[in-house]
Amino acid sequence: MRISNHVRTGVAVIAAGLAMAGCATASGTSAGGPDEAPAVVEQVPEGEIPSVTLTADAAERIGLQTGTITEQNIDGVPRKVVPYAALLYDAKGDAYVFATSAQLVFKRAKLVVDTITGDRVVLADGPPAGTTVVTVGAAELFGAEAEIGE
Pseudo-torsion of CA 35, 41, 46, 48, nearest 10°? Predict the structure, then answer.
């Protein structure tokens, strides 16, 4: 699935703005208090995807919500389906979701989209059914991962 440069640029701008708005207070301190960063990004070698750990306050500020990758029978074939709200694209047009690995710990997981119908995305490849994914707050996590606003 190809995404135009205008859409990718718009997503990046929105992600940047939301990340900054969701994780900082008006005074510039973090949502978790003056000494606590709202998000901690794991340090990993270049090219690897880091995990992002949020404080409870930051998760509340961005209105974090999750859903689940399910297995659904589509045309007689079991297929993995993810909520459309969880779907993100990076600047290269690659599709991802933010999956949870522990409470308030999130990591981008790559997907291959087969089709999109309404509010569901049928996957050709991706995380297993049962994986918890972010449906509200993913753009803010993407901005935190990219350290937008730092």
Answer: 170
- The tens digit of pLDDT for each residue in 85-116 reads 999 999 999 999 999 989 999 999 999 999 99
Alpha helices in the chain (DSSP H): 5-23, 56-61, 138-145
Per-position b or e across 112-140, b if 16+ CB within 10 A of its CB: ebbeeeeebbbbeebbebebbbbbebbbb
From residue 45, how far is each of 27, 48, 49, 50, 128 by CA, in Å?
A: 33, 6, 9, 9, 25
Its pTM stands at 0.74
- DSSP letter for 85, please: G
